[in-house]
Amino acid sequence: MRVLVFEDSFDIEALLTSGGVDIAKLDLRQFRDSSDYLTRIAEFEPEVLMLDHFMPPFTGLQVLQSLIQAVAKGAKRPEKIIAISSASMANERMRQCGADLAIRKDNLATLEIWPRIST
After folding, report:
1. pLDDT tens digits, residue range 32-61?
2. Pairing relation of β-strands 27-31 and 48-51?
């Protein structure tokens, strides 16, 4: 599963690993800023896109709105877009604007979409 993350403060791989997600089954790329976001999305073609709201230079909401406009013009949309702000209001706003899911970063590993480490 190709996963693209725009998150500037947390190490998403570490969060997922600590929550029992089998990282070896993910092709995960994280960017700590949102510059060139449409190019990065188009080149990687993620199945899952995660967006933090509070991120420079463009917020997750701005990235989401721009991506939705690009999709309307023919760009490929990720299968799942997940709002991952620590602020519930920011997550809810991104859900209202087109994100498929919204979750606080500290609960990210609990999503059912992730492959789990076998015990």
Report:
1. 999 999 999 999 999 999 999 999 999 999
2. unpaired
Contact yes or no for 113/26 (Cβ under 8 A): no
How many residues in total does the chain contain? 119
Whole-structure pTM value:
0.96
Residue with tokens 């620590």: 86
CA atoms of 85 and 87, how far apart (whole Å): 5
SS (H, E, C) 42-87: HHHCCCEEEECCCCCCCCHHHHHHHHHHHHHCCCCCCCEEEECCCC
| Token duo for residue 60 | 């997750």
Cβ atoms of 109 and 18 closer than 8 Å: yes
In the chain, the amino acid numbered 48 is: V
Q: What is the pLDDT of residue 119?
A: 64
